[in-house]
Amino acid sequence: MTSPVRELDPERDTFPKLARGNAERIPGKVAVREKDYGIWQSYTWADYLEQARLIALGLASLGFDRGDKTAVIGDNRPQLYWAMLATQALGGVPVPLYQDSIEKEMQYVIDHAEAKFAIVEDQEQVDKLLNLKAQCPRLEYVIYDDPRGLRSYAEPFLLSLERLQELGRKFAQDNPTYFEDQVAKGRADDIAIICYTSGTTGSPKGVMLSHRNLILTARNAATREGLRRDEEVLAYLPMAWVGDHIFSFSQSILLGFAANCPESAATVRHDLKEVGPTYFFAVPAIWESLLTTVMIRIEDAAWIKRAMVHFFLRLAQRMERERLNRRPVPLWPRLLYPFGRLLVYGPLKDNLGVRRIRRAYTAGEAIGPEIFVFFRSLGINLKQVYGMTESSALISIQQDGDVRLDTVGTPIPGVEIRISENGEVLFRSPGVFQGYYKNPEATRETLEEGWVHTGDAGFIDHDGHLRIIDRAKDVSRLAGGTVFAPKYIENKLKFSPYIKEAVCVGQDRPYVTAMLNIDLAAVGNWAERRNIPYTSYTDLSQKPEVQDLVGQEVVRVNRSLSEEELLRGAQIRKYLILHKELDPDDQEITRSRKVRRRFIAEKYAPLIEALYSDADRVAVEAKVTYEDGRTGTVRADVRIREAELEGVVGVR
Q1: Does domain 16-186+226-269 have CATH number 3.40.50.620?
Q2: Among 215, 512, 554, 590, which is least packed by CB within 10 angstroms?
Q3: Angle, alpha carbons 552-553-554 (nearest 5°)
Q4: Which residues contact 386 (CB under 8 A, 6 or more apart)?
């Protein structure tokens, strides 16, 4: 599916030029808000441009040259978005990093990107950079926004953002047209940002995206979805992730709508209620967490209220399933639905902060059908999206009125999709990246004659919808020949509110096994209601009652797999609940919560071998890494359980 690509107006072909246009046309409209000390602070588009201008001039006074890189690290803050725009205005390239990265991860990205400047949020990030600066010789200046805790720091290369802007004001006195001149030099094909991939199979790769890539992709998606200037978006996703960049920066500047930065990661749920976004994105894990919160509260309610809520939720979900399956909804549920909206759906949406949402998206992993149906049944226009960093975030979106449970929609305008002979999804579009920074070999492997190899296995159905099966490299076979798609099975397991993470093993093995993480909040609440005492995650995970609870979820997945001819033989025969949560700091999963299979296979080799033996338990000792870099050891006696199989399954 393609559409003509309009050439960009030279006066609006970079983000600094677009922001300048907003400051001229809608100077008093709110561009960004930040909650600080419990109070929302608003900044207009005139403020947005002026703050970015002062930062840019301050950087120029320190010797910033065109092509220089700025590392941007911290929670979502207006000042960090301004820093990215300021860098682009000078012809430089912002390189956002995950704020929870450990020093080793930061060192790799900063050194590889050859960052000359770093603009960070607070003392936590400053301390990390001070510890690794000796290993990053190109890093000349570290600039911080929040001065708390930094009064006694005397390093000559360290200065506050306020001081940087003061330098910018002085620089402007001698160079009154410098900022405008630099903005005018910008071109659509200049690199706008380098986003580093999560690095599931090796070192992260720097994906270079141009202004043209991002503007055209943002514009085409906005046109398809009917986005407006009055949208409100919650800017809470990691700034290093390309999704946040497209929603909170690119589309916000392109259309002129407001981005809202929560006070902290801990207050996102509360701030979501106060903002009431109209345009919202969340990965499946967040939707799952919201649903878990709802179900916990329902279970804690009086039985009469609980019965009423369950009745109306079942009614709404039954109606939504009929709609998704393109079947007519009977009259009596339609007559009862308004009462449900008044008594249940409306209050629930208010409580979650999602009443004003006009369109909501999810992507990154497959979302459980039950979770997807639940939120849509409340009247939330939740849709599935498919994309990757190399596509400028977006490839396909489900269209209003054409939403399916098991697809990721149809291509957005300008995107073409085809399936290779071996079943891999390929695409080309205006958003195709410019290459991996300093990695031409990886670029050649991924980008071939304009087509990008996504690495995902999938197919296009008869209605033109794209369906993703698994990562192409992960699809294999069991020893007996049965197709094994680990991610597909893992997603089914994670549909359970009690299972947070799952890693399935089976390639060239006689049967499938699973290593699971419980959801501490959901299972903890379940245990407390049953007076089951526990002291820690490790203790709770090995309780016999919890083992039985999780076993029921494994049986549910096996029952589902038994109904699929190709995967009937890939049912889970044995499982265990891991003694610790999989953690990015321990390199078991990425910052975007993707499983590092190769690393886990090596680290947990004794557990995997025990799953394929006659053992019913295995003693483990694992090293864990804390946020401050310290390490510790967790010891446990992990139980191995056999799962019930559905139907006839050949096991060799």
Answers
A1: no
A2: 590
A3: 90
A4: 363, 395, 396, 397, 408, 409, 466, 468
